[in-house]
Each structure stands twice: as structure tokens, then as C-alpha cells.
């Protein structure tokens, strides 16, 4: 992966203040890109931006909720005033918790769908005006729940299935403008908020690890390396793809995830 360079590239990361998305942002920044991050909490954004700068990256960011198109418009204006048209747009904001359908209110279901599914539409719809045409790469961060029915995950399953459909439909609609749109599907990635919520103790973590054919949890770099590859010119003929980076774990089908 060391040969990839993103000098003079501009990268916008929605949901970029922590975890997998921050790992992706860091990988692009380390390879020369200018990176703009958004998430809801201004302090988390500021800390993430400071961390990227401390390691020599060029980074800025602001607070914006993906459920709020006006806030997204303002963030895109701020980002593009700084770095011009967007070469790479990562949409990865998400919320999740373990609960059965009968243990979640209608509002709880709606909250996750609003962030993951409607938020992804908002990020792409509002971002389109600022994408480089031709040449931009859009990457939605999906999840195995999109295609593996999983107990206690009806909200995430429904939302991420919709995210992958957004990927495929917009790959068709935007292809003639030279914009590629793909989904990246991380499996269980160690030391992330997502995994802390889905496998909240060592026993659950061990069960999860055992379902991975490669017998380990993923690392942030595993996802970031695939994100950079998919957004690089070498993947210039790849669009509408839903690519797993999961050690083979989704080959086993859905899991019985339980709140413990
Ligand atoms: N079980 C059942 N319902 C839950 C729940 C749980 N563990 N956690 C939250 N809810 C419900 C709330 O009770 C509320 O429903 P109500 O109004 O009927 O009471 C609804 O979800 C919305 O909660 P709220 O805290 O107001 O939403 P928010 O927009 O502030 O936060 C969440 C969104 C709930 C997804 C929050 O967990 C979050 O911010 N997550 C981001 C981090 C994350 O999830 N990372 C992993 C990504 S994979
Ligand atoms: P995380 O650290 O909690 O990342 C979620 C990010 O989204 C945070 O930066 C959060 O910051 C931001 N966010 C949440 N709601 C938002 C909103 N309404 N508007 C804007 N930003 C918002 O979790 P993660 O585990 O790294 O997950 C990152 C992505 O990977 C998600 O799309 C998730 O579905 C996917 N994924 C994770 C795993 C895993 O093993 N962890 C597996 C499969 C898929 P704020 O709180 O500041 O808003």
C-alpha cells in the first residue's frame, strides 16, 4: 500500500472523528491528502483534527449532523473554500445498539435509520455539487448487517441494506459524470465503538473472533488500506461494488448477537 499517494487530493469524511472513519482519514492524510472531517460533537472533531495535524497531516473539520442538510451544506462550503473540489467522499456516520424490535421504540428504530440511511443520502446528495467531475470516488461505509439478517439489529440491518442500494443506484446515475460510488463492508474491527456495542464483554468478543475464518478481529489499517485502494485510480473501473473487508466472517451468515 506504500506506493499509493494522495498528494494534492481532497478528502471529506462524514463521521470522521473516531474509529474506522478516523482510521481512513488518517491513512489518506499520511499519504498527502488534505482531509476535512465532520461529526456532531465539536470537541471530538477538534481532537481528531489535532491528532491528524500532530502526525504531520493537513486536516480541518467542523461539527455537522448528517441528519441536517443545511449543516452539511455549510460544512461542504467550508471544506471546498479550503481545498477545492472533492476527490474522495467517505460517508461513514452511524449509530448502533443491541436491542430486539420489541425492546426498541419506534423512535429508536427511526434514529438509527435517520443517521445511517437518510444521513448517507444527505451526505451524497448535498456533496454531489462539490465532487470533482470526472474523477471523484465516493465510499459508503456499510456493514454485514446489510445482507446478513442479525437478531437485535433490525434497525442497522434495514438501514445498511438501504445504504448499499444507495451505492448501486447512484453508481448508475452518476457514472456518466465520472463519479464512482462503492460500499466498503468492514467485519468486526477491534477496539472500535461498534465492536464495544455488539460484543460488550470478553466472552462475546471471543465468540465473535471464533466466527472469523482468519481467526482475528480486523484492524483499522485493514479497512483504511481497502478504502484507499477503492478510491485510487487503480480501481478506476470499479463502481457499484459492495466489498467486504472482514476476514471472511460474513461467509458464515448472520449472527445471534445478544445484549449481555
Ligand atoms: N436500546 C433501546 N433503545 C435505545 C438504546 C438501546 N440501547 N439506546 C438508545 N435508544 C433509544 C432511545 O431511548 C431513544 O428512543 P425514545 O425517544 O423512544 O426513548 C432513541 O433511541 C434515540 O436516542 P437518543 O439518545 O435521543 O439518540 P441520539 O440521536 O442522541 O443518539 C444513538 C443516537 C442512540 C444511536 C447513540 O447511541 C449514538 O449517538 N451513537 C453513535 C456512536 C455509535 O453508535 N457508534 C457505533 C457505530 S456502529
Ligand atoms: P464510531 O467510532 O462510533 O464512529 C461513528 C462516527 O460517526 C463518530 O465519529 C460519530 O461522532 C459520528 N456520528 C454519529 N452520528 C452522527 C451524526 N448524526 N452526524 C454526524 N456524525 C455522526 O464507530 P465505528 O465502530 O468506528 O463505526 C464506523 C463505521 O463503520 C460505521 O458506519 C459502522 O456502521 C461501520 N462498521 C463498524 C464495524 C465495527 O466493527 N466497528 C463493523 C462494520 C461496520 P459524533 O459522536 O461526534 O457524532
UniProtKB/TrEMBL annotation:
Superkingdom of the source species: Bacteria
Keyword terms of this UniProt record: NADP, Oxidoreductase
Pfam families attached to this UniProt entry: adh_short_C2
PANTHER family: PEROXISOMAL 2,4-DIENOYL-COA REDUCTASE (PTHR43296), PEROXISOMAL 2,4-DIENOYL-COA REDUCTASE [(3E)-ENOYL-COA-PRODUCING] (PTHR43296:SF2)
Name this polypeptide is given: SDR family oxidoreductase
Source species: Alloalcanivorax gelatiniphagus
